[in-house]
Amino acid sequence: MINGVPVFIGLLTVTNEYGEIRVMALVATKAHAQFEIALTQMRESLKLYGHSEPEIFYTDNLADKAFLERCFPSLLIHVQPVDIFAKLPLFALPDDVVVLTKSTASQIKLAVETIQQEIASSNIDGTKTVVAIDVEHNVDLTPGNSQQGKPAIVSIAHKHHIYILQVAELLYNGNFPVALKNFL
User: Fold this and answer.
1) Residue ranges of domains in the chain, CATH in brackets
2) What residues contact 118, with CB distance under 8 A and at least 6 apart?
3) pTM
4) Percent of the chain, pLDDT > 90?
């Protein structure tokens, strides 16, 4: 830290198949440019000492694939992609499903009231009511902290509607809609 401000957000570590560390690099951001030089130097070091380049590389981020293939062309040799799901049809929402995005407190309140009215109507005529709810959370990426943050998106599916409720800003401003809180 410099004057209380973190300089590095992470440590990139690359190990070989035996768990031996081959690269360690402190990084200021998660951008590929932060560790490209370290990986390029690793490739040059392997070549200098007569070792082969990696044939396989494990990462926690699929977006790293093209970057790693650029750094280590050996990852492209004798590779035949296997798409085990190629014969399955692409997923598509049925034509009668409507996706509605709501972000203001009044929009969210109205959406929740609409769902509640439909549920109340269903209960009167005795039909079964099904509501699906999913919550996506922000992740706190401050150094030394990788905790789940406050909810960012609440998705509610009911009948032929999917409501995407963007609640992050409302939560951070202390304006979380009471109607949604009561519904949940």
Assistant:
1) 10-76 (no CATH), 98-183 (3.30.720)
2) 158, 159
3) 0.53
4) 27
Q: How far is CA 77 from CA 47, 134, 151, in A?
A: 16, 41, 43
* Structure token digits, residue 39: 């990986």
3-state SS, one letter per residue, for the chain:
CECCECCCCEEEEEECCCCCEEEEEEECCCCCHHHHHHHHHHHHHHHHCCCCCCCCCCCCCHHHHHHHHHHCHHHHCCCCCCCCCCCCCCCCCCCCCEEEEECCHHHHHHHHHHHHHHHHHHHHHCCCCCEEEEEEEEECCCCCCCCEEEEEEEEEEECCEEEEEECHHHHHCCCCCHHHHHHC
Instruction: Round the average pLDDT of the chain to a whole number and report it.
Output: 85
